[in-house]
Design a protein that fits this description.
The structure holds two protein chains of two kinds.
Chain A (H helix, E strand, L loop, with lengths): L9 H4 L11 H10 L3 E5 L6 H14 L3 E6 L8 H10 L4 E6 L6 H14 L2 E6 L7 E4 L4 H11 L8 H10 L4 H15 L1
Helix pairs in contact in A: 4-5, 6-7
Chain B lengths: L3 E5 L5 E2 L4 E9 L6 E12 L5 E10 L4 E9 L7 E2 L3 E12 L4 E8 L6 E2 L30
Parallel strand pairs in B: 2-9, 7-10
Antiparallel strand pairs in B: 1-3, 3-6, 4-5, 4-8, 7-8, 8-9
The chains are: A alpha/beta, B mainly beta.
């Protein structure tokens, strides 16, 4: 199968957005406002934190709230100098969306947390562990969620049996990102 | 009639390096847009994140709600259109409308052979397969085996 035809190609997977397990996006925004726009999306790898953060960026834009998104990961760290530069450019009407807060060095995190109280509209982060900021959403996955997502992406004439998805889910300890990548390989090799 | 369309001369969609793409765009919108943009670009699709290269763009300011305009772009040397199992490179023309979400895309092929270049296969890496013979299933019963 050509990469462009693969049902699990990244651009197709990215059309699947975060599914709130309880409540609505309006409720989510109300809760965020109650938290004074300082909150965390918490969950393990592949549980949808970054997807939800991106969705939140769009929801906030629709509310007229300006945002600045920063992605931090192993290949794109946030050293002190870059952190200071980022904060110096942040304006009071901007809400900082920080993906990967638990990868930010401790000194940088302290500065960032303190600075954004008075110099930004808010701070929303993703993190693997709770405690950095009040938890807005705890992202979790389930075999049923994987099945729902796969049902939307897979071609109807070549479905992946649910029991195989359960095995995949268990094998990758609920990391949906890795599950979907493996399904990409499966379809790439299967035709 | 479509709100936006890209019509290629002679309906030609396969091109060689440095060849000209000629055609016209037509628009039939409900309101007057501020601008239309026509871009010639390539992008990747597959397992990795998308790369995009915009080669040329033309802007049509204050085009009115209805109209048409001819265009021509010179294609570069490459990259050629190709597909493997991990990544495809796709050339396209895209017409977008500002403000608004109307958009239309027309794929083309840039290749020295007249066809998309197909890359060879890679060794099996997935733990899952369609069946013992690795052939595609024709039913749900051709169950994926996990944990190999």
């Amino acid at each position: 199968m050509r990469a462009r035809d693969n049902p699990f190609a990244v651009d197709r997977v990215r059309t699947i957005r975060y599914r709130l397990q309880s409540g609505t996006s309006t409720g989510l925004l109300s809760r965020l406002k109650e938290l004074n726009y300082r909150a965390a999306l918490v969950g393990p790898d592949g549980s949808g934190k970054t997807t939800l953060l991106e969705d939140l960026e769009r929801m906030l834009a629709e509310q007229g709230i300006r945002t600045k998104m920063v992605f931090v990961n192993d290949t794109s760290p946030l050293p002190d100098s870059v952190c200071r530069q980022l904060l110096s450019k942040l304006t009071r009407d901007e809400l900082l969306l920080l993906d990967g807060a638990d990868l930010v060095p401790r000194s940088c995190w302290s500065l960032l947390k303190r600075h954004t109280i008075t110099h930004a509209y808010g701070l929303v982060i993703t993190s693997h562990r709770p405690g950095l900021l009040p938890t807005l959403v705890e992202c979790t996955t389930s075999p049923a969620l994987l099945q729902d997502i796969v049902r939307e992406l897979q071609p109807p004439d070549r479905p992946v049996p649910p029991e195989s998805l359960d095995t995949l889910f268990q094998h990758h300890q609920g990391n949906l990102r890795v599950c979907l990548r493996e399904l990409y390989d499966l379809y790439a090799l299967g035709a | 009639m479509d709100k936006l369309s890209i019509i290629l001369d002679d309906d030609k969609t396969v091109f060689a390096s440095h060849e000209m793409i000629r055609g016209r765009v037509e628009w039939n919108l409900d309101a007057n847009p501020r601008r239309l943009d026509l871009s010639l670009f390539w992008y990747t699709a597959g397992k990795g994140t998308r790369d995009v290269g915009v080669v040329q763009s033309v802007k049509i300011d204050d085009p009115g709600a209805h109209g048409s305009k001819e265009f021509s772009f010179a294609l570069p040397e490459g990259p050629f259109s190709f597909s493997g199992k991990l990544v495809s490179l796709i050339w396209a023309l895209e017409l977008t409308c500002t403000p608004g979400s109307e958009t239309v895309r027309r794929e083309i092929t840039l290749s020295p052979t007249g066809r998309e270049i197909l890359l060879g296969s890679i060794p099996a890496q997935s733990r899952l397969s369609w069946s013992r013979s690795d052939s595609a299933p024709d039913s749900v019963e051709s169950i994926l085996r996990a944990g190999r």
